[in-house]
Give the backbone structure.
Amino acid sequence: MRRRPLHQRDLERMNLPRRFWGSRLSGVPNAAVEAVVHRYLSEGRYLRGEGLYLWGKYGVGKSSLAAIIIMELRRRGYSALFVEAADLVDKLMGREMFDLETSWSARAREADVLVLDDLGTEHHDAGGAIERMLEGLLRFRIQRQMPTIVTSNLAPMKLGRHKVDGEWRDGVYRPKLVEMVKEALSPVSVEGESLRQAAGSY
């Protein structure tokens, strides 16, 4: 596949934080990382709309990995957007513009690949309006087979209602959003310097 060089304008248009501009897969000394990314890219999973749910503790490299993936997809000619979940919610609530012609809402929907970083840190309102906005965004992208990559400190099982020591606990999100994540995003556990495809399911 023909690849194009990345320029500063590309990185800025992607809204990619400057700290990730130099991220390279070769800089992560773990073969498991390379295997997961290589499989996702080489098998063209993104072409089928398959996304990734990268989860693990703070600081283990989830966001860097997401940045590496979308930079490679941009090199392959796909449009890409990187945005923190909390920041996107603020921009959607404020109906902010991405540029002179495009709203943040439209940009998040229309980018060929979207990274929604740090899901779970956004504000949740009692009426559920914010969650419905996220549901609408994911539904739009799923229906059009547009891949979304999500990073989060939340284990997949904690997104929705789950058992802890035999007792049911409420999750962070409503069942509808949880089911969308399960449908369209493959879970990947990121642990320390190790990255491995989760062996089980959600």
In short: The domain at 8-197 is CATH 3.40.50.300 (Rossmann fold). The chain has one domain: 8-197. DSSP finds seven helices and eight strands in the chain.
